Amino acid sequence: MIQKVSIIGLGKLGCSMLAGMASRGLDVIGVDVNPRAVEAVNAGREPVQETGLGEMIAANKSRIRATLDVDDAVLNSEISFVIVPTPSDERGAFTLQYARYAFKALGQALKKKSGYHVIVLTSTVLPGATRHGLLPILEQESGKKCGPDFGLCYNPEFIALGSVIRDFLNPDFYLLGQFDQRSGDLLEAVHHRVSQNHAPVKRMSIENAELAKIAVNSYVTMKISFANMLAEFCEKLPGGDVDVVSDALGMDKRIGRKYLTGGFGFGGPCFPRDNVALNFMGAQLGVDSRLLKTNDDYNRGLSKRYVEKLQPHLPKGANVCVLGLAYKPLSHVIEESPGIYLCRALSEAGYRVVGHDHLAAPYAEQALKMSALVTDSLVTALKDADVVLVTTTDKAYTSLTAETLLRGRAQITVVDFWRALPHLAADPRIRYVPIGRCPDDTAAGARLEPLWA
Ligand SMILES: NC(=O)c1ccc[n+]([C@@H]2O[C@H](COP(=O)([O-])OP(=O)(O)OC[C@H]3O[C@@H](n4cnc5c(N)ncnc54)[C@H](O)[C@@H]3O)[C@@H](O)[C@H]2O)c1
């Protein structure tokens, strides 16, 4: 039974895995090239922000240590997980630059090790990258052969920032791409040990796992875009309501309700880039992957479309307040965030824009310096606003009252992307604009009539 594990890369995912594995009784050695990350973990602190991470590292300190030395990690563990960045390159693919560096050090460490060891790549990569981009480095540096001398697996995780530890310990399933049976058996044993929910393990070839990982994200984003399109349909139909339609769709077992709440586009560090990368792969392999490109184009065009749609509600020169700049509530991450894109599109359309986010404001300030004022004070953000756009379901926003929004004014417009402030709808002082619901049944009916009369 495997007891000693090492983790190469102590970032948002790697460090959460380190803490999660230690919490399940494994002895874990963490490695990072950043001395501050190593120091933090050794001091029992979290090197990155993630829910419950600090507490879990502190609680399992006796089973955790960190080092800058890959040799130390490999020689003193039986299996190494590599979770280093694989950022997008200019082609839209994922660069292996950091992974190559890590695999070189791992290969050199394998050379010094007499026993069997399994290397597991967890970082997101495209099909073929593990076998053709990274395995040769291991064999070259170690002088050993994958199979008889060491094992190799591709084992990505399906986690969301803000719930990484919970998701890692309670996944729907583990996706396990194996070089051979022996590598897969050892990795599966680790998952059975770590999983809190007895999650099933899907074993397959490395290439199938590489494709499956990225396909999951692409499929989910297609659902999101589909729901956003339905929201637009509903705005044009008398009595149209995307929640009613999505609830019905969700009853169909082939579809399911998750990710069908039409509202706003998808963002963050994974979803958008995975579509682009899979589309790149399609182009390389001669696969017609236009579906992915269309999905990406549709999502990227949403902010501009919304601004055009909202223009009748936004008088020229109006002060517009955008609430929610991170790509989801309770996050500081602004990467590919719809809220950021919306601020930019509003500014380009000639509005004065103030953006608010409790956690993301310091990051958004830099990203929006040419387009919007950014604040972490809700009072300041709402002070001069004629129109308020609520882009996330952050409780601080959904609990806003008419009085707080009006601040003594006679009227204000509130655009509610997720229909999360229904209490404002009946207030005559608020022009409430829920995205995904028909704003004018008579006009919508008049548009339909000539089609069928
Ligand atoms: N964060 C997510 O939500 C998420 C979800 C699924 C998959 N992933 C994938 O996991 C991988 C890592 O993502 P992350 O968000 O944890 O990245 P991150 O940037 O938060 O952390 C990466 C860490 O790796 C370290 N590192 C870089 N090169 C190294 C090396 N050669 N040796 C040791 N450490 C090294 C960095 O110093 C950093 O601490 C990426 O491929 C990403 O696509 C991330």
Report on the structure:
It is a single chain. This protein has 453 residues and is an alpha/beta fold. Helices cover 45% and strands 14% of the residues. It has helices at 12-23, 35-42, 53-59, 70-75, 97-112, 129-142, 164-169, 181-194, 206-236, 242-251, 271-285, 290-310, 338-348, 361-367, 378-382, 395-398, 402-406, 441-452, and strands at residues 4-8, 27-31, 64-67, 79-82, 118-121, 151-154, 174-178, 201-205, 319-323, 352-356, 373-375, 387-390, 412-416, 430-434. The strands form 2 sheets. Strands 3-2-1-4-5-6-7-8 form an 8-stranded mixed sheet, with helices on both faces. Strands 11-10-9-12-13-14 form a 6-stranded parallel sheet. Helix 13 links the parallel strand 9 and strand 10 (352-356). Helix 1 (12-23) packs across helix 3 and helix 5 (97-112) packs parallel to helix 6. The protein is elongated, with a radius of gyration of 25 Å. The mean pLDDT is 96. The structure holds nicotinamide-adenine-dinucleotide. Nicotinamide-adenine-dinucleotide binds at residues 8-14, 31-34, 37, 48, 83-86, 98, 101-102, 123-124, 157, 159, 161, 269-270.
| Total DSSP helices | 18
**Strand content of the residues, in percent?**
5-15%
Any low-confidence stretches, pLDDT <50, length ≥5? Answer: none
Outline type:
elongated
**Spatial arrangement of strands, main beta sheet:** 3-2-1-4-5-6-7-8
Biggest sheet descriptor:
8 strands, mixed
Q: For the residues shown, what is the average pLDDT?
A: 96
The beta-strand count equals: 14
First-residue to last-residue Cα separation: 73 Å
Named once each, the bound ligands are: nicotinamide-adenine-dinucleotide
Binned, the helix content reads: 40-55%
Class from secondary-structure proportions: alpha/beta
Kindly report the oligomeric state of this protein.
Answer: single chain
Q: Over all CA atoms, what is the radius of gyration?
A: 25 Å
